[in-house]
Amino acid sequence: xxxxxxxxxxxxxxxxxxxxxxxxxxxxxxxxxxxxxxxxxxxxxxxxxxxxxxxxxxxxxxxxxxxxxxxxxxxxxxxxxxxxxxxxxxxxxxxxxxxxxxxxxxxxxxxxxxxxxxxxxxxxxxxxxxxxxxxxxxxxxxxxxxxxxxxxxxxxxxxxxxxxxxxxxxxxxxxxxxxxxxxxxxxxxxxxxxxxxxxxxxxxxxxxxxxxxxxxxxxxxxxxxxxxxxxxxxxxxxxxxxxxxxxxxxxxxxxxxxxxxxxxxxxxxxxxxxxxxxxxxxxxxxxxxxxxxxxxxxxxxxxxxxxxxxxxxxxxxxxxxxxxxxxxxxxxxxxxxxxxxxxxxxxxxxxxxxxxxxxxxxxxxxxxxxxxxxxxxxxxxxxxxxxxxxxxxxxxxxxxxxxxxx
Length: 406
Prior knowledge:
- The chain is of the alpha/beta class.
- The protein has 2 domains: 72-260, Vaccinia Virus protein VP39 (Rossmann fold), CATH 3.40.50.150; 287-405, 3-Layer(aba) Sandwich (Rossmann fold).
- 33% of the residues lie in helices and 21% in strands.
- The protein has helices at residues 76-93, 110-117, 129-137, 149-157, 177-187, 201-207, 223-231, 264-276, 287-307, 319-328, 362-366, 379-385, 387-391; strands at residues 16-21, 39-45, 52-54, 100-104, 121-126, 141-144, 162-168, 188-199, 219-220, 235-243, 249-256, 312-315, 338-339, 357-358, 370-373, 395-398, 404-405.
- Helix 4 (149-157) runs parallel beside helix 5 (177-187).
- The longest helix has 21 residues, at 287-307.
């Protein structure tokens, strides 16, 4: 029987089965789709600590490697988000040239580069060598590897103690949570601060954002599940910020136990999760039925457009788009192609469904009737970028949380 990756309690039956799905961030080249693997994508809830999680059907190396396609700096709104965070931390913590920041999951250095530009020594850690090379061009000292206790001990042995450690949308990508959090406990200075940014499981479940479930996301996080994990490593949440990113996220501030009293905002989030019932298995029942119903509504929405002779393009080729399209059975018979700003994705295909990924400028040439914004979490950015197309009659639509025109 599968065990919880946090507390190791046995898990029961899945609360959602999305069938067989490809690796969402592995974009095949044209002609290579036949070699794609498909793997079970099932969601479980731990009955002891209530961590929401999927099975370990693939090792972490299958997701994070030298050909990793996601680059965080491709989104201008995300760059503004991380640059604002860096500026706030520099001011609040008084970071300067004598300080050290360690970003775990530094990718192409969008965030770490903002700290480096402010004159703060910044070390990035990421297993994707191609993204790390880009980060190096931004002045970020980057260690290529998977973060955990062993790598933290190596850095500490080299004299590194972090005044600030940050992991933006990384904790969900970690199969061994104890090893990962143990690395933070090893490397963090005695009075240091760690921040973890992640989409909230409560938002995913209440809004039905099932497209954010894919093999690269091993866990779906809540304060309810994380508090005992941090406690095992002598850490505790002392503050939390609520964020609009990814349909509803949190930035959790964590210190060593005794280095700060939890704020009212921590208590408020704990109370909210208790009120919703995150520590009760009844909260998760019925989720699969709601997901299935959404699939029917999305297929009908797109089917009506096609029946009226409308051409549809997809905007963005995010990992969430692969989950959505594969589960809903939507392919080239419905959507002609997809566009994406990331050069690492252009010229490749959306996993599992074979949609070609092109540069966004092709939209001006093709002039589709409808653009389905698969990267719905940055829909505002995309609408602003293509306001002239919208003014010319091209309609933009979102699949989540409900299929609708924007």
